[in-house]
Amino acid sequence: MELTGAEIVIRCLQEEQVEYVFGYPGGAVLFIYDELFKQDKVKHVLVRHEQAALHAADGYARSSDKVGVALVTSGPGLTNAVTGIATAYMDSIPMVVISGQVPTYAIGEDAFQEVDAVGITRPCVKHNFLVKDPKDIAPTLKKAFYLAKTGRPGPVLVDIPKDVSNQKAVYEYPSSISIRSYNPVGKGDSSQIRRAAQMLLEAKRPMIYSGGGVVLSGASAQLKDLVQLVGAPCTNTLMGLGGYPANDKQFVGMLGMHGTYEANMAMQYCDVLVAIGARFDDRVIGNVEHFAQVPRKIIHIDIDPSSIAKRVKVDVPIVGELKLVLDELLAVLRSSKQKPDAGDMAAWWKQVDEWRVKGGGLRYKNSTEVIKPQFVIETLHQITGGDAFVTSDVGQHQMWAAQYYKFNHPRRWINSGGLGTMGFGLPAAMGVQLINPGATVACVTGEGSIQMNIQELSTCKQFHLPIKVLSLNNRYLGMVRQWQQFFHGNRYSESYMDALPDFVKLAEAYGHIGMRIVNPADVEPALREAFSRKNDLVFMDFQTDSTENVFPMVPGGKGLSEVILAEDL
Amino acid sequence: MRHIISLLMENEAGALSRVAGLFSARGYNIESLTVAPTEDATLSRMTIVTSGSDAVIEQINKQLNKLVDVVSVMDLSDGEHLERELMLVKVKAVGEMREEIKRMTDIFRGRIIDVSNSTYTIELTGSRAKLDNFLQAIERDLILETVRTGTSGIGRGDRILKV
């Protein structure tokens, strides 16, 4: 059957059971938009800026186990999308991005709205393609979906010139695909798994550290079994929150720059560390040399061999699909006659509990005069029963949300961890709400971040997305201000947000409900009212304490035990 | 330490830029890089000469393997291997220097492949060190132009990189 390239694109999306495409039309994708118009299986969400299309597709993917799909035009459409592509790449989110390109005969002639899409995106995609013949569209899209979701997931870009989308070719969607140069791993090496099990059984101070990989691979159940079988404390990275239930007593909180004292100390002083779907990045273990000063054995389980032994030396590397590796590890542990030594474990927990006391837990001094941002998050947790999907932007509010909203389930905490993209929260929440209709979706943001993609309030109106926006408005780029206070002699260079809009009026102008909350006593009633409005987007402008800082803090370049606690200042 | 890495990759547009881009993005050294299609036209063979600590070389191998277009990677320095580089040198050759340069070329088992009234163009193949030595042996002022291909490498005996 002969179809045009554009028809083939839509057929492929239907074959992949894509429900939503997030995008923005333009010259180079007109044929594709024409075909979208002629059918109703694949629904299109018109964003107001291409960056938001990517973040929405990203939130869609993070909160489900599906591949997010975005569609943008050539030139500025593609360049606007790059931040969103890089965001997904850093956090290993499966996405397929289709971009229009100028016609093949115009490529290289500096045509109107021409950019080298494949060249620009090359360092921030898992792979990308330029399709020069309509007969290649179907196999290329098949490959794109396959690459995006298998192995270590990531975004894949398919660039389609305008003439290719208008030419005809025989259409057949491949039922399967194999790529000789791409063979994602499955099971881990059994002998390494046995070594790891033995090491764990002999450990006196075991520690389990898990990251976004556990969430992405759906290995939370296995992680929980492992932690409980070994009896070790467990910490999650920023990306891994919800991978292990926060309300469990073996959970010691998030680790890293703004992690709990006990999580960081246990990382530093354990004798056997199991890293699962995590990558020892600079915000997690701080100074590598400092971390290496204390001897400990490291077992590292990851699907990507290049994540292993990248920043730290590893004693037992295990490359494989987390679920399969953990299942096998659990089986070995269960069948072993040896059990972890109860005395050693009790002594280790005594130490961890002492750190819990010394660190004082996550805490802040609440006030009746001014709204403390942490109080807003705690109240949010309380009235949503800890069950909401929470997206965030980037900065202090992100850290407070990560610290004070206790995630008990995976895929509920949606934030830009690797790239740290301001403007991520609201569009991501759109994708989350679409794939989880009826669910409670909160976007925790700040007055700085929200203005980076505030135009999406318009998209939310068009698609009836009842997101609850909690803007912790402290009139500062709070995290920048905090670093300037700590490390730059209180010189608040360009971190004050002057001339802010009236966010209540702004929300109303977009057709939503706006609330300004100034008194601490009004925080809970306001949140209750907002969340009772099931069908409305409510924008809450919380006027928070502008001097509040995020604690604990391991300053950049310092070691995990060189932490600043709240009382140190 | 110096390593010579061989890889087979899909002979597709942009494949070279993925490898080159990886090296520059992650701050790895490239001393030389050569690439050409193999007897199987769908594959290109690339030889990269690089240097770094063991940890860096391990990452380079892993990151290269991670590129979707890369079919297989072999660090030739891990075992017995052969290295060759081709160099073309144009030198000033007048008067008694014509005989002197001819002699030097013979000593290095090079060939004079082009001759004019005042120049010789010499073709020389060998290890990087041999080519360097030849250049050192010739008076600097006489050298008009040099072109080098960069090192190509292959494993000895049964060490074979093939799909």
How would you summarize what this structure contains?
The complex is a heterodimer of chains A (569) and B (163). By secondary structure, chain A is an alpha/beta fold.
Protein architecture, described:
The complex is a heterodimer of chains A (569) and B (163). With 569 residues, chain A is of the alpha/beta class. Chain A has 3 domains: 2-170, Thiamin diphosphate (ThDP)-binding fold, Pyr/PP domains (Rossmann fold); 190-359, TPP-binding domain (Rossmann fold), CATH 3.40.50.1220; 373-550, Rossmann fold, CATH 3.40.50.970. Chain A is 38% helix and 16% strand. The termini of chain A are far apart. The relative contact order of chain A is 0.11. Chain B is of the alpha+beta class and 163 residues long. In chain B, the strands form 2 sheets. In chain B, strands 5, 6, 7, 8 and 9 form a 5-stranded antiparallel β-sheet that branches. In chain B, strand 6 (111-115) and strand 7 form a beta hairpin. Chain B is 28% helix and 40% strand. Chains A and B meet through loops of A and helix 1, helix 2 and strand 4 of B.
